[in-house]
């Protein structure tokens, strides 16, 4: 069972949801609410300040507009009212004093009204008089048209001082000048009432002026026109001198959009080449005024806000009555000129609110992270408790296993517990054999396939780096065993065929140092359960020690305390490689007691060594082949005598060894035969390696009842037959690899306390049925 699946049944989902709300949901919701309230208040405050500032701006600009309208009206009023007064005076005066009235009244107006530039007086016959300021505003200049309509028409000029005394007189050609052809005369007569002209340029002074004229009938019944001229330079200076906010401007236009006076008048006049009818607002130079006047054309008079170049402007268009006509007074000012302090205060409040929101958001985020971390730690603690409980249950299961320290039991629960706790693909327990040069797999558990295996052997010569790492007693956690020089050979020999990648090794410490190692393949939780692995390593070390002392005690008991078996005496005629007819050539007769060898033998250990034909074909020199076989025969015979076997004979490509040939069961026969098999295998492998030959033998072994007896005439031969003989030969022929020892289940059951085996599986054998076979791997 995976630890991720471990849950505490006492914790209901509703409790988890409630805890989530208390620890994360409510605090975060509170912080979000505070942030929302602060942001809402800040935005509302900013909008309120902005709305109030705009309202204040409009009110201030409207007040400014009223003031400017009054000032402009006051600026123009003397011309309008003065023209009407002069008309009444001239209309009722005698023709003889008309010029005197004109001069007296006009000079008085010039001295008292600075914006007035000059006065005109003309009649329907073409008479013309002009009164204007003298040069440098010194005195008064009077101009009269003489000899009108002739080639000698001239302008007679008189410069008079403040006492009306003539200071200077001169004349200038008048050309074909006729006042009746000018707009101020013709349009006024046509209108029959007071009339304001468009700006125009005076031919004599080349100044841009604006004229207010009134018609009247004189005593001589002629139509006369009295005109007062106002210099637009004065009007421009007046409009430009007005302070509208900090950077606002005012401009005076007629309803057709012609500029009369105000901001940009000089640039507009230059762009129009001095033509007053072409003096209109340039959209490229004055985009705000252009847009404001367009808004007036569409919506009429009033205050509005326009946006140009990402900036807001407040504009007001007002009606300015002038005589019977009216002009448009246009005021333009940036929105923040009047409300900069309020807008700055609103922006500061908004920025402060944003700063508070950001800080609150940061604190809320930190609170959220802390709550998540607390919740994660709580889950980890709960999971750790669950894992600890699960490990505790696993340890209890291991400790409660009744055969845990029984050397005869394989204790498969150990590798299963390791694989389950670490989620390893495979878990294995390895033992370093007593020779110190062999690593034996006691048990390997594949968690995916749920199968056990064992008996794998690895030599120091093949895995030196791995042996060195294990011998130092250090734990190894390697993500890629194939890329680490310490485990690369182990990976090639053991792991690659199973597709494993990662390797975790934990040493099994004995009294004198490492006695084995635990390996976990592809174990993602190996580091988390290292303490559990240490405990299992301690259990394995105790089992190894118990197995060692049990094997030693059993061997000593069998060799010393057990009564000797009544094994039949050795017959030299059944010796190793005995030439046929040797007894006859030696003239010896079979002993009389050989007749008693016939009969049933209940437990005979039989070993068959099957040799390959490669022995005969490995070398071209027959003499060398015979020498090799002779050396091998002497070696095997020495081992047979050393291990106390009954008989060893070579039959063709087979070597047959017999032990325990007695009418009473010999419990030590299988043990002696297994020792002989391991010694013969190791010595044959070394001898063949020295001759540069591959292993060319397989070994089979069985134990069981057989029949035996002396057969034939002199010299008689002793022979055994039965299932044990056939099974031993079959085990040799069916061994999985060259150089391996395959045994039957009876041999395994008899020797599992003292030797290490690995199971090959179940096989069908004719006459026997399904049976298990094992590979003898080594001594415990």
TrEMBL record:
The keyword S-adenosyl-L-methionine does not apply. The chain crosses the membrane at residues 20-43, 350-369. The keyword Cytoplasm does not apply. Residues 608-732 form the Guanylate cyclase domain. It is a multi-pass membrane protein. GO terms for molecular function: adenylate cyclase activity; guanylate cyclase activity. Its main location: membrane. InterPro entries: A/G_cyclase (IPR001054), dCache_1 (IPR033479), GAF (IPR003018), Nucleotide_cyclase (IPR029787). One of its GO terms (cellular component) is guanylate cyclase complex, soluble. SUPFAM superfamilies: GAF domain-like (SSF55781), Nucleotide cyclase (SSF55073). Keywords: Cell membrane, Membrane, Transmembrane, Transmembrane helix. It is found in: Cell membrane. GO terms for biological process: cGMP-mediated signaling; response to oxygen levels. This is Adenylate/guanylate cyclase domain-containing protein. It comes from Komagataeibacter melaceti.
């Amino acid at each position: 069972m995976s630890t991720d699946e471990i849950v505490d049944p006492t914790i209901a989902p509703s409790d988890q949801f409630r805890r989530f709300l208390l620890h994360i949901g409510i605090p975060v919701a509170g912080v979000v609410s505070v942030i929302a309230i602060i942001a809402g208040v800040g935005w509302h405050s900013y909008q309120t300040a902005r709305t109030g500032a705009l309202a204040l701006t409009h009110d201030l600009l409207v007040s400014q507009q009223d003031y400017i309208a009054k000032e402009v009206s006051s600026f123009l009023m003397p011309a309008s009212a003065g023209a009407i007064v002069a008309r009444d005076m001239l209309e009722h005066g005698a023709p003889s004093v008309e010029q005197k009235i004109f001069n007296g009244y006009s000079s008085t107006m010039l001295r008292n009204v600075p914006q007035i530039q000059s006065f005109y007086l003309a009649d329907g016959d073409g008479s013309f008089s002009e009164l204007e300021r003298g040069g440098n505003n010194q005195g008064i200049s009077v101009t009269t048209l003489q000899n009108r309509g002739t080639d000698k028409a001239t302008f007679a000029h008189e410069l008079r001082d403040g006492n009306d005394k003539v200071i200077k007189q001169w004349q200038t050609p008048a050309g074909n000048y006729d006042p009746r052809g000018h707009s101020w005369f013709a349009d006024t007569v046509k209108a029959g009432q007071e009339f304001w002209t468009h700006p125009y340029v005076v031919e004599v002074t080349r100044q841009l002026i604006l004229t207010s004229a009134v018609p009247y009938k004189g005593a001589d019944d002629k139509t006369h026109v009295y005109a007062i001229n106002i210099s637009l330079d004065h009007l421009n200076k007046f409009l430009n001198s007005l302070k509208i906010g900090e950077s606002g401007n005012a401009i005076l236009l007629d309803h057709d959009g012609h500029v009369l006076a105000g901001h940009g008048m000089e640039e507009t006049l230059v762009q129009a080449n001095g033509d007053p009818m072409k003096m209109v607002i340039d959209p490229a130079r004055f985009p705000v005024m252009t847009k404001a006047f367009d808004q007036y054309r569409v919506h009429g008079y009033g205050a509005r806000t326009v946006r140009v170049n990402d900036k807001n402007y407040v504009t007001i268009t007002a009606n300015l009555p002038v005589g019977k006509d009216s002009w448009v007074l246009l005021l333009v000012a940036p929105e923040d000129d009047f409300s900069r302090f309020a807008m700055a205060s609103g922006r500061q409040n908004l920025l402060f609110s944003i700063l508070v929101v950001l800080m609150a958001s940061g604190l809320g985020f930190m609170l959220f992270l802390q709550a998540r971390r607390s919740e994660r730690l709580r889950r980890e603690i709960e999971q750790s408790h669950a894992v600890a409980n699960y490990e505790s249950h696993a340890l209890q299961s291991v400790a409660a296993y009744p055969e845990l320290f029984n050397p005869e039991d394989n204790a498969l629960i150990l590798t299963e517990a390791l694989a389950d706790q670490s989620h390893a693909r495979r878990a294995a327990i390895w033992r370093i054999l007593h020779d110190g040069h062999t690593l034996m797999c006691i048990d390997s558990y594949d968690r995916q396939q749920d199968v056990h295996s064992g008996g794998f052997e690895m030599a120091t010569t093949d895995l030196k780096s791995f042996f060195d790492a294990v011998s130092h007693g250090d734990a190894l956690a390697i993500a890629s065993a194939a890329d680490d020089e310490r485990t690369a050979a182990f990976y090639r020999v053991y792991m690659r065929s199973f597709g494993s990648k990662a390797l975790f090794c934990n040493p099994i410490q004995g009294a004198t140092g490492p006695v084995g190692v635990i390996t976990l393949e592809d174990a993602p939780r190996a580091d988390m359960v290292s303490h559990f692995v240490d405990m299992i390593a301690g259990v394995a070390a105790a089992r190894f020690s118990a197995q060692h002392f049990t094997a030693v005690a059993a061997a000593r008991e069998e060799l010393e305390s057990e009564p000797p078996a009544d094994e039949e005496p050795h017959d030299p005629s059944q010796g190793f490689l005995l030439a046929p007819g040797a007894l006859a050539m030696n003239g010896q007769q079979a002993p009389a007691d050989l007749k008693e060898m016939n009969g049933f033998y209940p437990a005979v250990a039989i070993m068959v060594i099957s040799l390959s034909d490669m022995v005969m074909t490995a070398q071209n020199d027959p003499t060398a082949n015979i020498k090799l076989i002779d050396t091998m025969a002497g070696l095997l015979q020495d081992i047979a005598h050393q291990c106390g076997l009954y008989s060893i004979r070579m039959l063709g490509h087979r070597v047959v060894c017999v032990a325990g040939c007695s009418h009473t069961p010999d419990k030590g026969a299988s043990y002696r035969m297994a020792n002989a098999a391991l010694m013969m295998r190791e010595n044959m492998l070394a001898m063949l390696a020295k001759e540069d030959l591959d292993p060319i033998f397989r070994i089979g072994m069985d134990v069981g009842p057989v029949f035996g007896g002396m057969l034939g005439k002199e010299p008689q031969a002793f022979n055994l037959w039965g299932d044990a003989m056939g099974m031993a030969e079959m085990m040799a022929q069916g061994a999985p690899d060259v150089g391996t020892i395959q045994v039957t289940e009876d041999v395994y059951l008899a020797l599992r306390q003292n030797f290490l085996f690995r199971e090959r599986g179940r096989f069908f054998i004719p006459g026997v049925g399904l049976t298990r076979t094992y590979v003898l791997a080594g001594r415990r």
